[in-house]
Amino acid sequence: MHELLQNNDLDMHVISIDQFSQAQLKQIFDQADEFQKQLANKDSRLKLSQKHAGKQVCTLFYEPSTRTRLSFEAAAQNLGMGVVSTESAGQFSSAAKGETIEDTMNVLNQYGFDAIIIRHSETGAVKKAANVSKTPVVNAGDGKGEHPTQALLDAFTIRKEFERLDNLKVVIGGDLANGRTAKSLAKLLSLYPNNHLVFVSIAELRITQDIKDLLKRSGTSYEETSDLDKALTNADVVYWTRLQKERLANPEDFDSAGFNLTKKSIQSLPKTAIIMHPLPRVDEIAVEIDDDPRAKYFQQAGNGLYIRMALLDKIASQN
Amino acid sequence: MHELLQNNDLDMHVISIDQFSQAQLKQIFDQADEFQKQLANKDSRLKLSQKHAGKQVCTLFYEPSTRTRLSFEAAAQNLGMGVVSTESAGQFSSAAKGETIEDTMNVLNQYGFDAIIIRHSETGAVKKAANVSKTPVVNAGDGKGEHPTQALLDAFTIRKEFERLDNLKVVIGGDLANGRTAKSLAKLLSLYPNNHLVFVSIAELRITQDIKDLLKRSGTSYEETSDLDKALTNADVVYWTRLQKERLANPEDFDSAGFNLTKKSIQSLPKTAIIMHPLPRVDEIAVEIDDDPRAKYFQQAGNGLYIRMALLDKIASQN
Amino acid sequence: MHELLQNNDLDMHVISIDQFSQAQLKQIFDQADEFQKQLANKDSRLKLSQKHAGKQVCTLFYEPSTRTRLSFEAAAQNLGMGVVSTESAGQFSSAAKGETIEDTMNVLNQYGFDAIIIRHSETGAVKKAANVSKTPVVNAGDGKGEHPTQALLDAFTIRKEFERLDNLKVVIGGDLANGRTAKSLAKLLSLYPNNHLVFVSIAELRITQDIKDLLKRSGTSYEETSDLDKALTNADVVYWTRLQKERLANPEDFDSAGFNLTKKSIQSLPKTAIIMHPLPRVDEIAVEIDDDPRAKYFQQAGNGLYIRMALLDKIASQN
Known about the structure:
The structure is a homotrimer.
Chain A: H1 22-40, H2 42-48, E1 56-61, H3 66-78, E2 82-86, H4 93-96, H5 101-108, E3 115-120, H6 125-132, E4 137-142, H7 148-162, E5 169-173, H8 180-189, E6 196-200, H9 209-218, E7 221-225, H10 228-232, E8 237-240, H11 252-256, E9 274-276, H12 297-316
Parallel strand pairs in A: 1-2, 1-3, 3-4, 5-6, 5-8, 6-7, 8-9
Helix pairs in contact in A: 1-2, 1-7, 1-12, 3-12, 5-6, 7-8, 7-12
């Protein structure tokens, strides 16, 4: 079994991308595909909306992340589950009064929710919550830590386009040093054979050593380059990520290096490739690319709905 | 066809009061009346609450407007639709991260909502959103721009009381320079024959030239006056609006001019007239008038529920 | 009839613990027990979730209190009612624009809610709201005033453990001067015969004279002590409350006095006793006690769900 899978407690909580086996990923992706189909049909959509009637999820967001929250809530309601929601639990009076997240969970565990979906600004906070929770917890992002449903929807998007997750040339660019999505995608792709990863960034934002070590151990080939043209040649997937300019000494370096994607800069990209981005994007991908049939970042975001439905359905079906 | 109707895209989005024809208005008002009746009966209310089961709306409020949001959400739920909601998308992490409203819409379009109801502080922002949206957008107010459901509920309230929208003497007072509700009502009434509008305000807050021009072109008679007594004589409708005192050089001028409505100041108002206000009110209408049977401002607010139901039903019925 | 019951308008609003008779309390507690059972079974839970289909509640929270709001909303949804919600109506644009709570209620009354659940930072604000409301109002806490569902869930928790609310030795500690929960519990226990209350606190935080007077009038025996060991001996219930340290001159006094509950400090507490706390707790109860089978504070919080369901069911059943 892959080294990432030691912490396999999927039956209870969804905390980290590390906990999923290939078999489990396949099951989730198949279910997500199925839900997408059912939503497209009026009758099956209506039937689906009664599947988990009477059940409820709680979205507990300590920091706002409206997009993630809305898609989790839409996912729950598509399955017939009720939602109770807080969009800024940082203003949570109990937290403000000095309550630990463990106490908060101990209370919320009493309210009979079928799942508690948590977003937190502190790395590791959601794992702490899960450690004491008898109600299944889903990590909707914890600081610089994990955001497993994002990683799942990224992989799901690739599978949807190529019908496989192996034998792919994947170019990953942007903020590889700090962005959790780039790292999670690299991890996930290392589970599958014969992928080749190409990391493109400026010196300040290069992929970290822990990821390179992991790729080596899993036998996944990779390279780092500043030659975008060459990187895109024969690429299957271009996965670009957002620069948080406020964190950079010289944010213009990325653009100067030619790493912002434009119609011109992606000329060597094959017609069959796809362009992804976890969004929101700023300048890393020019708006002129949106109409390019290879641009899949909006569909990618939408795939989050089906992935979240698949996870919530799995959890709710246990009760 | 009336000059206001050039932009008739009601089939898709609800952005501006200008897009409605008389026939469409009649259809919406009739439906709103019908929903009001159905809600009043226990059995038909229950049945109605299943009409659009499985469908969902998203309320995307960039600035809080609790009353408008709650009534849209209550309207959606009365029709059986699920709601996902954000009450302060200004804190929206994506917007804060520099995302354009077009990108936000492109993402939300992927989540399968049947309608996206948007409130924004910037004039024109909702139209920008609608321009890229494949999901129907409903404008819940954009800055100093439009707030079409408010205009619809105002006209609906008059129709409910008089069974017509023509041949009325309508006195409009308050902040006519800045308030969008006074202007929208004037526009709407100009669609119907033989109305006479009387504008009452202090010099600083007089109705703007564009509205006067529009009334002229449509053949609607109007006058401006500072004689409240005379204005109210033979009036059918008194529509008063809120002064935003923080914007006024001398807010006490309005009161000194005798334009705050009190039992005493409305003595010349006929018994058959009605008093309206878009609310919230501050001092422009004294609380002592609330018990006057002519005071209809709270019912007016409530009529917003039926209007919003009629619009959401129309939109959801297209899917 | 007990002196507290003069204001018996339960048929309409739930404002104060004072309005409940013993018979009404019994009815609510029995119903709460029944709902707890129904939620534990998959089929009866599903059936329950359809009981008040088509009805709606509005949660109008002028200050955030996520826990209370979430449990009210979960309670409503468990009964099939829709929820529209605002978690910080202090940002409520209408309130910010100078609207009175009476006007807000007059508007919300038009939207057809079956109940309006209000949290407010000002003492008495919810009563003011109820005074003009034709829709039933439930007080979810108003400043230093009342929080009747907390008092009900406290009493319900004791009844659940002892099958009675009389003939109990109840030790109440913490901030007895300012905390509304300690006072409300004392009031409620004074309705039942042969209880003995023991108040434990530092000089700064002693129970107020009005409560002592009330206990005297009702014939309920009580004592004040600083001897925790003796207080806990033969106790049935220990009810501890949170210190708001920011309000205290010397917050460490409470700890120095030995009043923080620890494994060591509760040695004289009988095995059959229970330990309660309205939560959130800070240091007044050490985390090491959480595993003690007598610690019931998390279940106590959970009992709020059943109590709130019982109240909302009672209200919704009137329509």
